[in-house]
Amino acid sequence: MDRCVNWFLAILMAAMVVIIAAQVWYRFVLNDPLSWSEEAGRYLFVWISFVGAAAGVRYQIHLGIDLMDKLLPPDAYRVVVIVVNLLIQIFLLVIIYWGFKILGIVQFQESPSMHLSMRYPYMAVPVGSILMLINSLRVTVAAIRNETLDKEVRV
């Protein structure tokens, strides 16, 4: 799963770079801006943010305070990691629930330039949250088993 997520992120980022570069080229060189590129870049950025946050949960690279790691004994710190991840999982379940609820509301709205159903940009919220939940569960299980997940990013 990690490789699929990493490849998906790489493809999204490459697509965003190409689209934004094309927009700059068309606007400033050809003096004929693309009408859809800014919107496409924004939606790609939203997807990159949510799926990238899921990768951040997996590789445990989100901003955190490592003071507890330094102050607490290893077993107590492991309990803190488990409790924090359980709280994160509860929050993510709420986000997933409301993320799917909002899809029903926005499914008939169209984006202004691309005439795309707004369901697709908004789908980044529940999809990214599901991936974050899966990765948070993996981190929790590893902590319960007193194991560490490989933190090397592989594509």
Low-confidence stretches: none
Please provide the ordered H/E string of secondary-structure elements.
HHHHHH
SS elements, strand count: 0
Distance between the amino and carboxyl termini: 11 Å
Q: Which structural category fits the helices and strands?
A: mainly alpha
Largest sheet: none
Tertiary shape: elongated
Estimated share of beta-strand residues: under 5%
* Mean pLDDT rating: 91
Radius of gyration: 19 Å
* Contiguous helical run count: 6
Percent in helix = over 70%
Would you give an account of this structure?
The chain is an all-alpha fold and 155 residues long. It contains six helices and no strands. It has helices spanning 2-29, 37-59, 67-71, 74-106, 119-122, 124-144. The longest helix is centred in the middle third of the chain and has 33 residues, at 74-106. The protein is elongated, with a radius of gyration of 19 Å.
